[in-house]
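## retry 2 of 3
previous attempt timed out at serialization; input unchanged, resubmitting
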Amino acid sequence: MLAGIVFQHPTIESLRRELNRNGQLREMVGLGSVAPSAWAYTRFLHRILEHREDLGTMIHHVIDDLQQILPDFRD
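## retry succeeded, writing output
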């Protein structure tokens, strides 16, 4: 999912096409020889959104840590 954001893919299908085409990217993100199915992405998003509050807490902790390490870092 992060690769889709970083490389500005507007849809899951666009990201899946890139992952199927780009073996180095698949390797970098820890995938096998093909991209996960569209259903796998949907299932992942539904499951992760069940933990929205926990994710928000984790992100705030990471931001706090970054601000301690990098004083000029702003959220």
